[in-house]
Amino acid sequence: MKKSRILSLLLAAALLCGCGAKKTESTAPEKTETISIPAATAAPEPTATPEPTAAPTPEITWSDGVHADVDFDDMAWEIYDMTLFNERCEQLSRTEDAGEAEELYRWLAGEYNKLRTYSELVWIDFYASNGEDAEISDACQQIDDMLSEAGDTLFAALAFALEGPVRRELTAVMGEENARSYVGYEEMSERESYLWNRETELELRYNELVDRTDISEPSLNYQLGRIFLDLVKIRNELAELNGYDTYAEYAYEMSYGRDYTPEDAARLCEQIKPYARKYYADCYYCDVFQEDIGYFSAGELMDMLSEYAPRISPEAAAAQRYMEDHGLYLIESMNLISGLGYTTTLPAYNAPFLYNSLYGNVYDVTSMFHEFGHYYDAFVNPEPDPLGSYGSYDIYEIHSTSLEALTCGWYDEIFGEEADKARIYCLDSLIDNVVSGCIYDEFQQYVYAHPDMSPDDVNKAYRDISASYGVSFRSASGAYYWMYVSHNFESPFYYISYAVSTLASLQVWALAEKDRDAAIELYNDIVSRGAFDDTYCELVRDVGLKLFTEDLDACFRDAYTALDDLCRRYDAGQMAA
pLDDT means per 10 residues in the chain (577 residues)? Predict the structure, then answer.
């Protein structure tokens, strides 16, 4: 079955906490007996959920860098009426009038982005309510189903129009590259549509269950394990319907547009294991992780951004001001909102939005700068296609993890006498990105290749694969930890992006240790290129960094050695306790 890559990519973006072309997410628990997940791919204090009324849609010329002068509090979602949209898609597919085709295209693109924006807004409300509002949960399902239907209908109409008498004129309006991506698009079959909708249902069910405290952990593991395995079967079938032998191949190419293969990632995972075993033996249980380094409130974190964004670049400072002035953020304790961090764009407003739940420890600093790295990129690199663009998720994560790495250089100012301890946390977070990225990719590749497993089999696979990296579980429940990592359910095969991006970012860190100004200049160069024009390997080579496929030691060694030295100093009592 022929399927345009563009819908697959836009729907894949929906896996990342709702729908959106530019979105990343992460989690960052404290050190535990299993694997810590450092903040990695989100306002004022939470307000009442907005009434589902129509959101004003400003007139924006796409890709011109204009960000709407609209406050987040004035944005709202609604359940969209598809009647006129579907009628105009049909009209576009058969028109022979070039002027009419252009007018229809512009209207439909605007309406499609309005619907994308409703999806983003309702998912923000869903996470802000900690997934506990049934009405909002139902709206997430409805709006995302509509978005899938709208994209499928619109892209099929464009495919017809681009093969008809208005082809030349419509291509001139859309741009040749954008137009080419829709040619030959085929509408989803009923089976595909069912599978996409069922996937969303299961993801919502996961979010409803995962934070339940009235269910024993073994029972929760069984229930979430069944959801996970159902998702595996659904996604394997989607890959098969689209002509792929495995879902890993489908996800790497169609969902994330990678220029390296699952086999390349598997080789990286094997090569990282000797480092990982040393990391878990020598660094992971450093005594510093028993210390409370410091707590920063949401207001203090925002003040921190306003202090340091101008040191990155004038554009970063402008992004920070825009975010704060328009309330385009939600930062709150994980006890009050869903425990994750992500950054997305509200397409109708060309407005990035940052969501970050706080753990009340040093990781809040790293996660705040991580998410702002995404925000900075989204602010300076608007989507080039008004119907939603996809870029390299691996490059998006370089934007975020590199800013984490650069932030270490400001720790003397931020943490004072605790700076070296905080640097252990910072470097550990980055090293753990690489190791956990490999663990979860290997885990997912194994499960998707063995879809007839039981939940107990999944637990055993997670335990065995983790152990091969040197993880030592101190209790039986450690084998359940995979179920708390939302990526396994909502964005399969995303996690390797944290690993490969951080291998580039660690080189930015190493440069900053020698020449901080040069490192900041390199970082701004990387961000200025965006993630739409280059693939991961192209960008890394072009800016003069090493690829993990060519020289892993050059990517990883310096930062790991620095972390090991810091941990040894602390454990030997050579650092202020």
Answer: 34 35 37 34 35 46 70 94 96 94 94 94 94 91 92 93 93 88 82 90 91 92 96 96 94 90 95 94 88 89 97 97 97 92 93 95 93 96 82 93 95 93 93 95 97 96 96 87 94 94 96 96 96 94 93 91 92 72
Q: Is 505 part of a structural domain of the chain?
A: yes
- 243 and 324: one domain? no
Examine the domain organization and report whether 249 and 368 are in the same domain: no
Number of H helices, E strands in the chain: 22, 4
Quick one: pLDDT at residue 576? 59
Dihedral sign for Cα atoms in the order 158, 164, 170, 172: positive
CA–CA distances in Å: residue 207 to residues 40, 375, 489: 20, 25, 9
DSSP β-ladder status, 341-346 and 351-358: antiparallel
Say yes or no: 476 and 349 in one domain. yes
Domain that holds residue 68: 5-20+44-255
Q: Are residue 60 and residue 170 in the same domain, yes or no?
A: yes
Angle formed at CA 279 by CA 275 and CA 280, multiple of 5 degrees: 125
* Three-class DSSP category at 206: helix
Same domain, 226 and 320: no
- Tell me, what's the pLDDT at 185? 83
Coil, helix or strand at residue 351: strand
**For residue 438, what is the domain's CATH number?**
1.10.1370.30
Instruction: Output the pLDDT for position 181.
Output: 84
| Domain identity same for 344 and 224 | no
Q: Would you state the pLDDT for residue 64?
A: 55
Residue 564 is predicted with a pLDDT of 93
Q: What angle separates helix 314-325 from helix 298-312, to the nearest 10 degrees?
A: 150
User: From CA 382, how far away is CA 62, in angstroms rounded?
Assistant: 8
pLDDT of residue 380: 95
* pLDDT reported for residue 12: 40
In a domain, 33, yes or no: no
Q: Is residue 577 part of a domain?
A: no
- Which backbone phi and psi does 329 adopt, to 5 degrees? -160, 155
Question: Quick one: which of 78, 157, 89, 71 has its CA closest to 117?
Answer: 78
Considering 230, 255, 280, which residue would you say is the last residue of a domain? 255
Q: Which of 204, 231, 255 is the last residue of a domain?
A: 255
Give whole-number Cα distances, 418 to 409, 414, 422, 425, 569, in Å: 13, 9, 6, 11, 14
Domain count, the chain: 2
Compute the radius of gyration of the chain from its Cα atoms. Answer: 23
